[in-house]
Amino acid sequence: MDSRTPSSHASRSAADQTSTQTTPTIWLENVHKTYDLGEIQVHALRGVSLEIYPGEFVAVMGASGSGKSTLMNILGCLDRPSRGKYLLDGKDVSGLTKDELAAIRSRKIGFVFQQFNLLPRTSALENVELPTIYAGIPVEERDERARDALNRVGLAERAGHYPSQLSGGQQQRVAIARALVNSPSLLLADEPTGNLDSRTSVEIMEILQGLNDEHGLTVVIVTHEPDIARYAKRAIEFRDGRLRKDVAIQDRLIAKEVLPNLPALDEEDLGPPANAASTDSNNGGAPHQE
Question: Which of 59, 85, 175, 288 has the most CB atoms less than 10 A away?
Answer without folding.
Answer: 175
